[in-house]
Amino acid sequence: MTKKYILKNGKLIDPKSNRNEVVDILIVDGMIEKISKKISSTKNETEVDLKNKIIAPGFMDMHVHLREPGFEYKETIATGTLSAAHGGFTSVCCMPNTNPAIDSESTLKFIESQSKKCNNGIVDVYSIAAVTKSRSGKGLSPIGELVKAGAVAFTDDGSPVQSAEVMRRALEYVSMFDLPIIQHCEDLDLARGGVMNEGLNSTKLGLPGIPRVAEEINIARDLILAEYTNAKYHVAHISTEKAVELIRDAKKKKIKATCEVTPHHFVMTDDAVLGFDTNTKMNPPLREKKDVAAMIEGLRDGTIDVIATDHAPHSYDEKQLDFLSAPFGIVGLETAIGLTITELLATKILTIEQIIEKFSVNPRRILNREINISEGERANFTFLDLENKWKVEISKFHSKSKNSPFDGKILTGRSIGIFNNGVLFLS
Amino acid sequence: MSLKRKHLLGLEGVSKEEIFEIFEAAQSMKEILQRPIKKVPTLQGVTIANLFFENSTRTRLSFDLAARRLSADVINFTSSGSSISKGETLKDTARNIEAMKIDAVVVRHHASGVPKFLSEVLKSNIINAGDGAHEHPTQGLLDIFTLKEKFGEIKGLRVCLIGDIAHSRVARSNIEGLKTLGAEISICGPATLLPREIESLGVKIFYNLDEALKNADAINVLRIQQERMESERFPTLREYQHLFGITNERLTKLNKKIIVLHPGPINRDVEISADVADGEHSLILDQVENGVAIRMAVLFLICTNKQN
Q: Is A188 on the interface with B (CB under 8 A)?
């Protein structure tokens, strides 16, 4: 049976087609049938009243740890995608640090088939596969086979490729498929043993520091290699002032470099670590005021293309440890857009168009998963309420894990639902 | 008389008044320790657990003795031979011990922040006996108490901490406590063993030992903690001793009386020569003696705080 929806009175904002107007949208069997000022209902359609709400092209979080297979006690594809749907994401890209790592067609296909079974398949899950076998840093994974199976990018994520030679060959090889290599930039020699930003606060707390140079040196080296190989290169979760400068300069030189920042890196500083709260332990670590300012400037001037969460679920017991022993990372899917609207839109640092670019248009372009909003195209939308004031309550998270430093924070703005793959989801 | 705090996690944030209150109590405790019967019933019925997840001789004995001198019941726990090696988490271990009706926990751990963590998951009073490179508040207190006995006044006193500052919790507690009492603090050591932005804590940095000594009334010589170094921080012990070792020869050149402290254990003839450690400048054994008094004072003030 045909399923019809009418989205009524929503403000469609699509930076790609320069659209910003209040419209009705008729969706038939998951496809956009009609976009018009006014579409009359025939009572065969499910109506969704979006008055004073925003309709945006479906959001994509290009940095998510779904933990399945291997770490289902932290998160599963079902709970992770439900969390994504509540956060307003119609697509997530999962990182390969699963067990086994996503370095074979079978693991990738398993994730794909799981994701289609969960939550009516409303959230598209794309795999970012390992660039080296078992993320070991040695020996390329079967990249061609993985591309064919649907991998959208390659990375060893938390175990960054340390060898310049391996990185060079990886960039060259992956460039054949016009896909990017994503690097979690960290020189492991310089960062060894570190658990927070190296600076006054690590000195005060007596905790081993991760110096900013560990990130910057890795970025600088990779940018030189990316220029040399003319390959696409994307820096995951940048966190330092100089990292932004390096990428800004690279873009001026037309190096094919892009980058992302997480909400926590443009919202928090390492002052938050002073109480030893393990929910402030992440990698890269929270940095300092000047770095937060640089993230914001980078977002504003376009140096930073993407806002991604680095959603990193860990179980309650794992975070109930001393700071040194606790694992890195926080969950982010359900707070990302709220934090962004609160910190960047309300403060007039970014326009809503820029925010939509960083949550949808840019990550989709970087990973070749673009969507168009016009008649005849698949309906893939995120619905936003920019005015809604709400309180973050970790106990209400849909993610299996609750490790977030934002519990109790009052945010303005959130996603109220998504539409994708013919399914309407209202949170 | 009681401190207005439930725990002693560090000297950061501890007020001048609180420090002086501890010193005053320590003075009384010192008198008790001079008596033929060195024991009072003050903490009778109070049970204190010493949880030492890291090797320690002097601090553990000192806390143990301090508690016994006050008639508290003491249980001692060291990580070897415990359930830690069976994979039990720190939280479980601590809660299990607490379930045996413990009033206060004295904790030593290699990870910074463990006492703070325990203060959040336990109901007991927590006293930090050294956590990672963070703080060792009773050591800081006893060092400053020893200086106060010698000099009468800490305000304006020039104190230099020498050596491995990066790995030293003693350094941080000394800096916090001395700063609160108005001392002029400097540090001296290899650049590779000074933590980043330490100057923002209000300390002056010297790389030249003789200059540092010239500018100090007292020095606190820190142990080289090679076991904690992830990478090589100086070429050889010989070179370290040459550049930063405290020797009688160096001190004699100063033509002034300078006071030497060392929190122990000493690497003799590495950071400090034997003749200095045992010589006229040294107050090292006074520190140990004062350590028991300071810990008695802290246990007394914390455990008798009725607001707990």
A: no
